[in-house]
Amino acid sequence: MKSETGGGLLLPGDPPPFEVINPEGRARLVLFSDHAGRAVPQRLGTLGLKQDELDQHIGWDIGIAKLARKLAAALDAPAVLAGYSRLVIDCNRRLDDPTSIAQESDRIPVPGNRGLSGEERKARQDAIFRPYHAAVAAVIARKRKQGPDPAILSLHSFTPRMNGFARPWHIGILWNRDPRLPVPLMARLMQEPGLVVGDNEPYSGKDEHGYSVIAHAEAQGLPHGLIEMRQDLIGDTAGVARWAETLIRVLRDVLADERVYQPRA
């Protein structure tokens, strides 16, 4: 199922702001990925960037869309994938966050994001941000109506090196106040041979910098976590297949435990 274009910014031929995969999925799980896509609306050109810059990690979460599709199919879970580059508007930032429409990313200036009027910012919000989050909310609401309440997993990927530091983690689990899903998930991942698991690495879920997990899971009291996969591990078809197999095995074990879904004390 794909969304309709709209909001004034998008033209015929522009991709939709989101895609819902496996909407009828029966698993007690909802997946979403805020940075799955790297499209830029035709009206915005290339935001003043070269194509190879848009294709870098600053433009999207490399490999995560393919991984999300495999997880959704194997686990029989619905997944919502954002269609546009995080450089157009970041679907994991509050609209009042200065980095919602980044003027610079990883020291690369984004000329097309500078000097925007309020109307131009609103056009991006209405065409991309709001439809995507409405889709995530609708999928979760449908699962809750059908019952029982699902677990929520946000899927991201991270660059293997940042500011000269080689990040050692294969996978990181970000979380804040709710340990129900992330703690057993990390424990189960650590049972996999040779796997380096980051607890709130390479970013921290405790700084509340992100938006989506807070808005769609924490606010509703649903068990949740955010998975960060290292991009060089899922940058090709073989890597995606290998890590999907691992995550499918791990998630089946973790999500089968009813303690994950018990209300917090």
Automatic annotation (TrEMBL):
Name listed for the protein in its UniProt record: N-formylglutamate amidohydrolase
Q: Which species is this record about?
A: Dongia sedimenti
